[in-house]
Amino acid sequence: MRLDIHNSTVPALCQACEARHGGICGALEPTQLQQLGRQTARREVPPGTQLIAAGVPADGYANILSGVVKLIKLMPDGRQQIVGLQFAPDFLGRPFAESSDVGAEAASTVRLCTFSRSALEQMVRQAPALEHRLHRQALRELDDARDWMMTLGQKSASEKVASFLLLLAAHVDPLTGGYSATFDIVLRRADIADFLGLTIETVSRSLSRLRRDGTITIERSRTVTILDIDALEAAAGR
Amino acid sequence: MRLDIHNSTVPALCQACEARHGGICGALEPTQLQQLGRQTARREVPPGTQLIAAGVPADGYANILSGVVKLIKLMPDGRQQIVGLQFAPDFLGRPFAESSDVGAEAASTVRLCTFSRSALEQMVRQAPALEHRLHRQALRELDDARDWMMTLGQKSASEKVASFLLLLAAHVDPLTGGYSATFDIVLRRADIADFLGLTIETVSRSLSRLRRDGTITIERSRTVTILDIDALEAAAGR
DNA sequence: CGGTGGATTGAAGCAGCTCAACTTTTGTGG
DNA sequence: CCACAAAAGTTGAGCTGCTTCAATCCACCG
Are residues A143 and A172 in the same domain? Predict the structure, then answer.
């Protein structure tokens, strides 16, 4: 594997790009990567940065190279729901629409490979496989969204929190396929609450209970170690 | 509009097909429709028919010609969440996957235009615009799913029920773009409860309150008339 | 008619929310 | 490195909205 990664015709940026194989760029030929490479810019943003504003025409798209991005929906009265988390090497943005009704915000320090709407459209025209990749990611996100609907609609508070920890454990490390035993909760308690449809107090109580039960440990409110993965899965309701 | 609908090169089936323009087949040329037409079968199924079983390799795909289809996710302990409703002229099925982890069940009498996996794949190869249509529908469903996550996670019971009525009013009539003033709730109370993450009793109480407030009327527990659309939207939390 | 499945209504219990006090962590300046 | 302030998280106590359990009502159909 990775035989072609040192091919000199692949742009230097893309050679080292973590999104190269898992993300949408894996659909591109070296010459196409070169072309796209000329139109991309790397960006590193601090936590809290607004990446896409809901309802506002977006300036472009991006691949996530590292970090976690929150997708947020807002109600007129200020209530908010986090409708998804995105990790490397996900594609970020809403194709075929002027604007999206979900906002995107960096939950951690996030590194991005950004490009314009027209650059993407140009690449799609030249490489139909690219639209296929985008399509597959959309379907994967749809599956994820429906999974989470199950969590939001049917699970109890403690099941929700356990499910959230499993979600993080499965995604924070883009390289490994399975669960990470130790990882950082990059979200604040308020964000977790908005993701789970709970209050910060209930989230905190549920985490404390998991710790008291010996299922996990938590250091400085951020670093989680899973001590008993079976117990955690059971606590998540499956 | 509809100038080409009587073109004799379009298969008779498709000429009258309600899914023709709004659905994915709108992406096809008459000759392609002819070709697909030879590989499709119409089917009419009664309420309750299992159309797609979760986790089981699906035999094929379909367009919904009329009726309502429930998308259902199940937990090991039997709890279930309806993760979406599909109306004419939606495409039904999960492209690019052997099986889906959501099941599909007819909520009303449903008329379908069915075709095999290979027929679809063949058409996609010949008409890239078809994949584009499928992609757009996936993105629309993703938007819908995220909208509903907001409802599930943040709204109160009565807001959920009002949101559900607005959803139905906007979709039961595939022809009009806006809300229908009068429509049938095709789902049973138990289904509504599974869609909203509530119990049947709470759904019933919320409906009764909307009726008592003069916002809607309900005949024989099934036919709803919206008397005050503004009040209903306000009750839905927007 | 009577019977059956679905819907409504009532009363009591409890899971998660609200309000409030306290603790831990983080950031800043001496 | 410590002192201090601000922000974030935890814990407790009481309250409330939804669920649970149970009785009744209603539409439909042989």
Answer: no
B194 and B224 fall within a common domain: yes
Say whether both B72 and B139 belong to one domain.
Answer: yes
Co-location of A138 and A49 in the same domain: yes
- The pLDDT of A49-64, averaged and rounded, is 87
| CA pair distance B60, B201, nearest whole angstrom | 37
- Residues of chain B contacting residue A138, judged by C-beta atoms under 8 Å apart: 135, 138-139, 142
The mean pLDDT of chain A is: 91
B75 contacts A237? CB cut-off 8 A? yes
Low pLDDT (below 70) residues in chain B: 1-8
CA distance A69 to A67: 7
Question: Closest-CA residue in chain B for A101?
Answer: B143
Give residue-wise pLDDT tens across range B169-187. 999 887 777 899 999 999 9
Of the residues B114, B148, B182, the one at which a domain ends: B148
Asked if residue B139 and residue B58 are part of one domain, the reply reads yes
> First CA to last CA across chain A, in angstroms?
35
Residues of B in Cβ contact (< 8 Å) with A145: 142, 145-146, 149
| B111 occurs within a structural domain | yes
Q: How many domains does chain B have?
A: 2
Residues at the strand D interface (CB under 7 A)?
A 188-190, 200-201, 203-205, 207-208, 218, 221; B 156-158, 197-199, 201-202, 205, 220-221
pLDDT digits (tens, 9 = 90+) for A152-205: 999 999 999 999 999 999 998 877 778 999 999 999 999 999 999 999 999 999
- pLDDT tens string A91-103: 999 998 877 899 9
Give domain status of residue B12, yes or no: no
Last residue of a domain, one of A113, A132, A148: A148
Predicted TM-score (pTM) of the model is: 0.93
Which CATH number covers residue A168?
A: 1.10.10.10
Mutate to test the interface with B, among A149, A164, A233 (most CBs of B within 10 A): A149
Residue with tokens 């883009």: A174
- Structural domain of residue B136, as residue ranges? 41-148
Q: Which residue is nearest to nucleotide D28 (CA to C1')?
A: B220
A7-14 long-range contacts, Cβ below 8 Å, gap at least 24?
A9/A34, A10/A34, A11/A37, A13/A37, A13/A40, A13/A42, A13/A113
Instruction: Report the CATH number at residue B137.
Output: 2.60.120.10
What single string gives the DSSP state of each residue in B62-92? EEEEESEEEEEEE-TTS-EEEEEEEETT-EE
The pLDDT of residue B97: 85
* Greater model confidence, A98 or A30: A30
